[in-house]
Amino acid sequence: MPQTEPQLICLIGAECTGKTTLAQRLAEELSSRWVPERLRLFCDALGRTPAQHEQIDILEQQARDEMASLEEATRHRQRYVFCDTAPLLTAVYSEFVFGDTSLYPRARELHARYAMTLLLEPDLPWIADGLQRDGAHVQLPIHTKIVKELQDIGGLIHHVAGSGELRCASALAAVCAGIT
Q1: Which domain holds residue 66?
Q2: Tens of pLDDT along 93-109?
Q3: In this structure, what are the phi and psi dihedrals at residue 6, rounded to the nearest 5 degrees?
Q4: What's the chain's Rg over C-alpha atoms?
Q5: Model confidence, pTM
Q6: What phi and psi values does residue 116 have, to the nearest 5 degrees?
Q7: Do 161 and 174 contact (CB within 8 A), yes or no?
């Protein structure tokens, strides 16, 4: 049987929707790779949130991190690369925080690389976790912007809801059924 190319799978959602936990779990369950969220790495390294002019660098570095993981997955004959968020989320937050819509064209272009998008519903309790968290009041507006963007972009999208094992099982089923 010929080896298939690894597939990029995006996990996207508002803050505190379980992206990191689920991406790590999916990678573990499916013996695959995961790409950490570049914004979290930025905040942890610098002890602050990014300024407006730094958003494009975060967007582009997320894309570079994904491509490097894709190359590693190819070398290790892994099937999937689970991306803990996407450049699109950087564009959404750039609009929400700074009123800057300039990142959308590049983010939309990059989003076309994903074989599937797992859209995490904002149905988990909000928990403070680092500098990049704004609060529960931000979840619904961000989720609404993400949904609109994904509707415009199209592609294979699966909504992931519920908690714990139900959330993981839903995502696993979508990945295993959605990509052949």
Answers
A1: 9-178
A2: 999 999 999 999 999 99
A3: -65, 150
A4: 15
A5: 0.91
A6: -155, 150
A7: no
